[in-house]
Amino acid sequence: MAMADPDLQEIHDFLVGLAEKAGSMITSANPSTVDTKKNSSDLVTETDKAVEDLVSSSLRTAYPDYPFLGEETAKSGRLTDAPTFVVDPIDGTTNFVHAHPYISISLAFAHKQKPLVGVVYNPFTQHLYTAIKGQGAYLTAPRIPSSFPEGEQQVLSTYERRRLPLRSPPPPLPDLSHALVAVEYGNERNGNNWDCKLNTFSALGRDKSLNGAMVQSVRSMGSAALNMCSVARGDIDTYWEGGCWAWDVAAGWVIVEEAGGMVVGANKGEWTPKVDGRRYLVLRAGAGKEVVEEFWENIQGKLVYEDTD
After folding, report:
1. How many CA atoms within 13 Å lie on the side-chain side of 297?
2. Catalytic residues
3. CA 127 to chain CA mean position, Å
4. Among 118, 192, 254, 262, which one is least packed by beta carbons within 10 Å?
5. Beta strands 43-45 and 68-70: pairing type?
């Protein structure tokens, strides 16, 4: 018997509830056991593993026919055409270890290698980003009253759901000299990709008289999923990344696209990147193809990952 088509709204609602449960685990945890994977910049805690166990067991109970691709248990970072849950239990583990509250749980549902549902939740700020393909992207966050009538008790914050991007219509981005750009070091700290990143960072910041892009500034915040959500919000203009995996970007991908942004490849000419391709350039609504091409012209070299090339 043929498998029924996925109910995207049902999956969305289930993932939101799961993100909130996982968020409670994260905020109550103390990351006392910290291990390294690839090197000292590539960390994993017992909380990463516990959250992935919670998420995987919950999803397998509710959706036993759908495969699961999670950061801490995946043998491969590659997606197939099968309906698949794609999960990063803590995106921003280094921030988590340092008690820096820029972390998220990233939950996505993909089919035929395309993200269709995305949920990204920062439990410390209680910012919840969600999207369903074709239905828009949203931020649900606390709305804290700025003043209170004299003599009355403080009212607990309520939650407000706003469509992304937050500025509508989004302002145009004429070129990179007007851009706030997100980048990340990643955990590959030598070789071609490291050199490409450092030289590109320099070109982005350099004065135009020295053939640079002279972007307004650069941010490196430590969570791919939240970086993508900042692009969807509209307060980061572009995000250039190499070395991430599908679980880092799948949820943010659909959130960005549903907010009117676009995802292309990190290297020149990569107009149709794969979710598991590990190279991404993300742009907010209001940034056109001319900004993509200008960014590509400032890339110094080429990002290459053996497991995708």
Report:
1. 11
2. 71, 88, 90-91, 93, 248
3. 13
4. 192
5. unpaired
Q: Verify cis geometry, omega within 30 degrees of 0, for the bond prior to 101.
A: no
Q: Is the backbone peptide bond immediately before 64 cis, with ω within 30 degrees of 0? A: no
* Residue 4: CA count within 13 A, CB half-sphere: 5
Strand-pair partners of 157: none
> 256 with 262: CB under 8 angstroms?
yes
What are the pLDDT digits (tens) for 75-113?
788 999 999 999 999 999 999 989 999 999 999 999 999
Calculate mean pLDDT across residues 237-249. Answer: 97
DSSP secondary structure code for residue 29 in this structure: -
- The single-letter DSSP state of residue 143 is E
What does residue 36 show for φ and ψ, rounded to 5 degrees? -110, 150
- Cα angle value 84/87/91 (rounded, 5°): 155
Q: Label the pairing between strands 137-143 and 127-132.
A: antiparallel
- Residue 267 sits at φ, ψ, to 5 deg, of -100, 155
Do residues 302 and 196 make contact, with C-beta atoms less than 8 angstroms apart? yes
- Taking 50 as the threshold, does the pLDDT of residue 192 lie above it? yes
Q: What is the pLDDT of residues 35-77, one digit of tens each?
A: 776 676 556 788 888 998 999 999 999 999 999 998 888 878 8
Residue 62 host element (H or E)? helix 46-62
pTM for the whole structure: 0.92
Cα(78)–Cα(245) distance, integer angstroms: 9
The whole-angstrom separation of Cα 171 and Cα 237 is: 10
Give per-residue pLDDT as tens, 7-16. 999 999 999 9
Task: State how far the Cα of 75 lies from the Cα of 92, in Å rounded to an integer.
Answer: 21
